[in-house]
Description:
mainly alpha; 2 strands; 69% helix
Amino acid sequence: xxxxxxxxxVIGDPTRxxxxxxxxxxxxxxxxxxxxxxxxxxxxxxKHLAVLxxxxxxxxxxxxxxxVYTVDEDxxxxxxxxxxxxxxAWDGRxxxxxxxxxxxxxxxKR
Length: 110
């Protein structure tokens, strides 16, 4: 599975990750409700939500004068699967490094 760098660039922002956490915990929210719980302005929240929506991590529905955002769990699942692939690759690399270090250590003891 190829890693979607644009998706991970979006998720890499700590404010956006916190927004995703809040949306997942509450089942959805508006820019106003999120800005009440984050140390950024409503305008900044709206910009972050636009980025999350563009990449497909959230979807908005209109409710009166506000847009209610919810996390797209399929897209989030795709991100998690990519992260698992990267984790597995790094686990393999780290195991090889460990074996090399152990070999070097054994060689030095002789």
